[in-house]
Amino acid sequence: MTVGPQLSRQAKVENPTMQTMDIDKDTYANKPRKKDDIGVTFSANFQWWKRPSGVAAVCLGLLYVLLLAGIIGLSVYYNRVIGHYYSAARFQTSSLNNLTKERDHLKEELNKQSSGWQKFESSWYYLSTEKKSWTESRQDCLKRGAHLVIINSKKEQEFIHEWSGCLDIYLGFHDTNTEGVWEWINDGALGQSSAPGTTYWRDGEPNDADQGEDCAQLSNKVSDPLKSWNDVPCTTALHWMCEKTPSTL
Ligand SMILES: [Ca+2]
Ligand SMILES: [Ca+2]
Ligand SMILES: [Ca+2]
């Protein structure tokens, strides 16, 4: 390519800074470029981000940022997934344990019912099929891990009156220690430590007939369940009822 001397001279006049860019064939071929001239020329015409290496560095930087953001995002996501998994596993384990306990509880209740026990509110009750003295009845309940029934409420009195049917049964109530001072049994940890003072004696009872009636029975010979107790000799053979409370289960 040949550029005439006239054009070269015109460029020098219009733009002095372009002197070193004079592409006059002769000048280029015969005159070595000065170091300072080259630096001025490149700084004036090429910014670093426009160089191929600059563009590559920017792209690599952006790629690095994107990769870093991706890694952080994946970490957060998997942490949530793993947290959710462990939470679900704990919930399932807890549910399984609860179901197992519920199954064992129902199994125990079925076993009790099949062996003659009946549940009312928080206690279990056993109605004897035999007749024994009050002391023997008490011992039988202890062997069963229970105690002679202790009546703590009107509801319990009504339930026992109904469930014992036509039978007269022993209660855990006596005045064997001091005549006329009636107390509930307290068979250690198996017994209920206290019972309310409310009583459900038949009219005219307790009468301590013949000075020998120190043990209480619940009699079904009267229709009023709230007036059904009678004192009898403790040696009388009667049915009895045992009670298991939550503390004795
Ligand atoms: Ca009771
Ligand atoms: Ca008495
Ligand atoms: Ca009596």
Q: What's the helix and strand layout?
A:
Elements: H1 5-14, H2 25-30, H3 35-45, H4 52-114, E1 117-120, E2 123-127, H5 134-143, E3 147-148, H6 154-163, E4 169-174, E5 183-184, E6 215-218, E7 229-232, E8 239-244
Parallel strand pairs: 4-8
Antiparallel strand pairs: 1-2, 2-8, 3-8, 4-5, 4-6, 6-7
The structure holds calcium ion (3 copies).
One calcium ion (CA) binds next to loops.
Name the features:
249 residues, alpha+beta, Mannose-Binding Protein A, Chain A, eight-stranded mixed beta sheet, 8 strands, 44% helix
Helical residues, percent: 40-55%
Beta percentage is 5-15%
Oligomer: single chain
Radius of gyration: 52 Å
User: What is the H-and-E element order?
Assistant: HHHHEEHEHEEEEE
Task: Give me the CATH fold name of one domain.
Answer: Mannose-Binding Protein A, Chain A
Per CATH, the superfamily of one domain is Mannose-Binding Protein A, subunit A
User: Class of one domain in CATH?
Assistant: Alpha Beta
- Residue runs with pLDDT of under 50 for 5 or more positions: 1-29
Shape: rod-shaped
* Biggest β-sheet strands, sense, barrel: 8 strands, mixed
Q: Which structural category fits the helices and strands?
A: alpha+beta
The termini sit apart by 113 Å
Bound ligands, named by name, code or SMILES: calcium ion
CATH-scheme architecture of one domain: Roll
The average pLDDT is: 81
* DSSP summary, beta strand count: 8
Tally of helical runs: 6
